[in-house]
Amino acid sequence: MSRGRPYVRPLDLKRGCVDLSHGAGGRAMQQLIDELFVPAFAGGTAVARGDDGAVLPELAYGERAVIATDSHVVSPLFFPGGDIGSLSVHGTVNDLAMMGARPLYLSAGFVLEEGFGLGELARIVASMGRAARAAGVQIVTGDTKVVEQGKGDGVFITTTGFGALPAGRALSGAHARPGDRILLSGSIGDHGMAIMSLRESLAFETEIVSDSAALHDLVAALLAAVPSSSELADPARGLRLLRDPTRGGLASTLNEIALQSGVGIELDETAIPVRPQVAAACEFLGLDPLYVANEGKLVAVCAAADTDRALAALRAHPLGADAAIIGEITDDPQHFVQMRTGFGGRRNVDWLSGEQLPRIC
Amino acid sequence: MCLAIPARVVEVLAEDQGIVDLGGIRKQISLELIDGAAVGDYVIVHVGYALSRLDPAEAERTLALFAAAEAAMNEGAADGAGGTAA
Amino acid sequence: MKFVDEFRDGRLAQTIARAIAAEATPDRRYAFMEFCGGHTHAISRYGVADLLPPQVRMIHGPGCPVCVLPIGRIDQAIHLALQRGVILCTYGDTLRVPASDGLSLLKAKARGADIRMVYSAADALALAQAEPQREVVFFAIGFETTTPPTALVLQQARRLDLRNFSVLCCHVLTPSAIGNILESPEVRELGTVPIDGFVGPAHVSTVIGSRPYEHFAEEYRKPVVIAGFEPLDVMQAILMLVRQVNDGRCEVENEFSRAVCRDGNLKAQQRVSEVFELRKSFEWRGLGVVPYSALRIREAYAEWDAERRYVLDYRGVPDHKACECGAILRGVKKPTDCKLFATVCTPENPMGSCMVSSEGGCAAHYTYGRHRERAA
What we know:
The complex is a heterotrimer of chains A (about 350), B (about 90) and C (about 375).
Chain A lengths: L26 H14 L23 E9 L5 E2 L2 E2 H15 L3 E12 L4 H18 L2 E10 L7 E11 L15 E4 L5 H7 L19 H10 L3 H4 L6 E5 L5 H13 L2 E5 L7 H10 L13 E4 L4 H9 L8 E7 L6 E4 L5 E3 L13
Parallel strand pairs in A: 4-5, 9-12
Antiparallel strand pairs in A: 1-6, 2-3, 4-6, 7-10, 7-11, 8-10, 9-11, 12-13
Helix pairs in contact in A: 2-3, 2-5, 5-9
Chain B lengths: L4 E8 L4 E6 L2 E6 L11 E5 L2 E5 L2 H19 L12
Antiparallel strand pairs in B: 1-2, 1-4, 2-3, 4-5
Chain C lengths: L9 H14 L6 E7 H10 L9 E8 L7 H12 L4 E4 L14 H6 L3 E4 L3 H10 L5 E7 L4 H14 L4 E7 L2 H10 L1 H4 L8 E4 L2 H6 L5 H6 L4 E3 L4 H17 L4 E3 L11 H10 E3 L2 E4 L3 E4 L3 E3 L8 H4 L15 H5 L31 H9 L1 H5 L1
Parallel strand pairs in C: 1-2, 1-7, 3-4, 3-5, 5-6, 7-8, 8-9
Antiparallel strand pairs in C: 10-13, 11-12
């Protein structure tokens, strides 16, 4: 919504802080929206702003709307490879992409803590805008609330995404079948360890960078090479499912798939890419990279006949250059995820129990 | 118990502190429990403290022992090829 | 990672596996206890058991300081944090250990307790310096490996005359626990629980040396092989134990010679003895009350001893009646022999000590080894 005249004073991005008036619905809030959010989120085709909601254009014939939502809390807010702003775009874009949908629109809800610097907020919002433009999605509606000091952690961002699922396409965690192959788009643990390395009590020096990235383009390339089984109408061919192994890491994602599809999983430890620095940081803290979070990786399950085609498509894309075949789906009434270790033995790969905590023993 | 890992000393600082490197990760630790740690030494690090110095020659000897396990078996020489009684 | 990756080589593992298979007499049973949780973890994490012939069986010992920490000690820590308003600093390991009233340190934190996870005892001391208006207690757990750093911070606190810092000392001693297992009736009475030898502690031994185990080798006629925590170290130690058994030897051998010598780290031992003295008795989860098996803070450091400072009484809390942890820790039973295992007792909801830490025998089996039950 355009205003007749500018505000008396522009927002003080150098020294200004969020205060309770920024969430109270009055002029201060409107100024925050006009001067900070709207310019950052500008671009793309015009979707009318200023009303209580956004009216979205029609989808193409046969397409279905897909919706996904994700709340983002991260400490610290800025980390090597990203910040909470870019993360909140990538997280939801990826959720849509894992459904096979083309991401189109986002809504963004902000919970701001009183006293949070307007300059930092501007950086986060600008980063969000950049990430959205790079991913080709528009942020079309939003909301801001302010909580008293001590009741928030600077800023929390919830994004909801809308995407379009082409006719006939169906990907689901329930579609894996025994004999299918499991592919991983690159190294694991980068995001979690980049964050961990900055935690006060654990601080160590490293060049680990978060892998936070929007994966929809990689997914498009993969689906162009290997459409979903339902599109092919051939149960022996095609892509079954996509998942992004975020919280809980690869291990938890694979256990979800095993349970949802009612199958077992057999992994090959040596095939799973882990960067040396991530492996070393995990050794220091007693963590297992299989349980460490990722924000720019995907797991794909496809029919065995299409494995090579899928791998080639992933590897041809910059975000999938280190892609690997890491295992296969098995028949297992107990839905165990098991792994052949590099050492020559076997082990279960269980769900993460509780929180992944650094340990001394 | 007792998660500990060998890391290389890359810097010796004042007050018995030091920086160690493990696979490209650097961390400040205390060298107070060992004597005369020097840059290049490998130390066993536990909860931020170096507990002992790692002896590279002994490490090589142990690795050689692994490789020799089969040879010893083939010769039927099952005499205690391990480290001596400490 | 130098001195790490070489000791995880799968090709060499096959070599040692073949040697073990060839040298272990087929009609004899070999039962070895790995005392340390570090070894238990390595065996499970790398699948070492798959490389052993059927006649060689590993028994998981009590060497996980989190597992053996009794409920009553966690209760004390929670009491300090919730009722006495201190900042309680702890290693990440203890946060999820279940205590009385359905609490754990993590749950106490959710109820408003100020509980901070630290990586090092020095971090707790630094916190006390940074927040002089708050009282900071360091919840010190661990075996001989973890004790010297606690000794150093106590000495530093005294040097600095830092009055808002104290230590809740729960440090325990490895040789006492091994002795307790060897003295238990099941192990002493021939044939009930055969333990043919021990894989001896790795990092504990860097501090105390190999000498303390010589007594077990002589007195109880049990071979001991001190081994590193990498999977090849464990394999090699098993091979060395098989050879000792075959030869009828009962010696202390040192596979971890790259970091352990006979006398250990004398400087560390000196610091520990300046600050700590033996406790007459200490309750271990699973093993019960074991005489002279733990340390307490000396009189000279009484100011910094949380037990004295806050006049804490110790109250033992029994484990669940059906819990078999004690028998499992002594090698009498396997995790799957326990009725609670994987039914009501899981890593999310541990009833007994062995399920608490990923190094505990039950947790290791639950997390890494359940596929084995089908094969068996």
